[in-house]
Amino acid sequence: MEVFRRAILQPGPPESFALQTVQQVIKPQKQTKLVQDENQLLENILRTLLQELVSSAVQSGEQIMQYGQSIDDGETTQGHIPRLLDIVLYLCENEHIEGGMIFQLLEDLTEMSTMRNCKDVFGYIESKQDILGKPELFARGKLVMLRTCNQLLRRLSKANDVVFCGRILMFLAHFFPLSERSAVNIKGVFNTSNETKYEKDPPDGISIDFNFYKTFWSLQEHFCNPPSLTLAPTKWKKFTSGLMVVLNTFEAQPLSDEEGDANSLEEEAANFSIKYLTSSKLMGLELKDPSFRRHILVQCLILFDYLKAPGKSEKDLPSDSMKEEIKSCEERVKKLLEMTPPKGENFLHKIEHILEREKNWVWWKRDGCPPFEKQPAEKKVVQEGAKKRRPRWRMGNKELSQLWKWADQNPNALTDPQRVRTPAITDYWKPLADDMDPAAGIEAEYHHKNNRVYCWKGLRFSARQDLEGFSRFTEFGIEGVVPLELLTPEERSKYQAKPNDKSKRAKKEETKGAAHQVEENQIATAANEIDGEGIRAVLEASVTPTDTDATVATGDMSQGGSPIPDEHQKQSSDTDLGQEAGQMEADAEVDAGMIDGGMDTEVDLDPVG
Predict the structure, then answer these.
(1) Is 471 in contact with 462 (CB distance < 8 Å)?
(2) Which of 235-249, 536-550, 577-591 has the lowest mean pLDDT?
(3) Which residue among 89, 215, 320, 465 is least packed, with the fewest CB closer than 10 Å?
(4) For residue range 358-397, what is the model confidence (pLDDT) as tens digits?
(5) How far apart are CA 235 and CA 231, in angstroms?
(6) pLDDT band at 559, cuts 50/70/90?
(7) Long-range contacts of 327-330 (CB under 8 A, 24+ apart)
(8) pTM over 0.70
(9) Domain parsing of the chain, residue ranges
(10) DSSP structure string for 533-574
């Protein structure tokens, strides 16, 4: 212990001597880190030393955080206790000793100090908030720090130590993460022990309506326990009747701008008190106080906001009649807040903004307080020169492996009705058909035909399922591909082909095909003449001008049934090729005669000799 006393008096930063002091006192097995038994021994030494320093400070009559201060060369040196805490904090931060030791010393210090000294101790805690909040220290000491702050709040007066209580609550809000469940009232329990005491019997010589006085302060019983209003209808009726009396009085006695300026809200904020006096003699003055009226009216808005909050169970929800009464009362309260000087309209807007943000807080608690912070994704650094190992998939690649895991029995997954399938052609083109209906009144810029991906997919579907519709694309565009049964009669008539057009188109296609075949036959005939080994096939047939089918049949009989001599069957392969070429020439002459000379009554074909 004497070694630490000497270390406290040493000048310079703690890192220059703190670890050496611990090694000198404990003589640890490891040079830079203590084991469990060694930590316990060091903690007992430090707690005993802290207790002796506090006793010495009390006996000297000095404040404990300033005990041992001295002024050297115009500079004020640190007190003994803050110096000791800095040394321990350095050791905990660098993990030389157990991280929760500093929190244990701070708890002991607050328990041994008076409330006046606790303010100085808490000022030291606030100054070291960033270090105490580091993850390696926070995980070890968050519960001890929470217990320390709660003990301080219990010792403080909520009426006289409002600022100090606020400092503690603000520290806890910054020290703990926002999603810390220990700082959240999950069940929404109200502090029903916060009773407002007021006079029950009228005193002598009172100049105000005592019934109004009792009615006014009885509202606080409902404000401190809002859930009771929905459970008992009689309490709700009593509350609304009392509230109507108060609102009527506020409306009958409006405040002027002079009265609002007479009560300086800025000066009042400096001397803010969480409770108002309930003496009946002060009732007349309090009714003329704008901040007093705002206090009561804001309480009403908070109560109404709680009753309207979503997410409650059915038994906690207000009835329809209650909802109507809440709405009417809320409108009156907001109107009174807007009329209350000074700057009533701005004040009302701020209160509404706060209550709107409160709804997000309520929903967050109802959802189980999910964490707001998201840890950043860790990027794995690949060493240079190291080979990346390719992942091995069960089915060969990632997509097939994921597909295989979609169902336990994959054969059933293929027949699942929920499985994605190619839509029917009528179902796919139905949106475009609706766009084409003039009765629908859809503007052209919103038509599906402007969607290139939609049109491209539709053409693929039509090419597979509706060739007739697909053929109309070249003449009518994408709208012509739509199945006719989906269109209105007027629209259908635009895209239906006429019978005469069909026959002309068919005849034109036949003409083009025959001319193309003649050209091919002429080329084959030229090749046959060069070889000199072709055999000319001559057929005879009589064809009537009106019986086209018979003519074609006769030509087929002439080609397939003409006799071929035996000597020609014994010729070489060159001769066979010549026969085929000659036969193709004969067929071409027959077809050319049918097309060009359609009015001839007879076509002579010489038989093969």
Answers:
(1) no
(2) 536-550
(3) 320
(4) 888 888 888 877 877 777 777 666 565 556 667 777 777 8
(5) 8
(6) very low
(7) 329/240, 329/243, 329/244, 329/247, 329/300, 329/304, 330/300, 330/301, 330/304
(8) no
(9) 1-175, 210-263+276-367, 425-492
(10) --------B---TT-HHHHHHHHHHHHHH----HHHHTS-HH
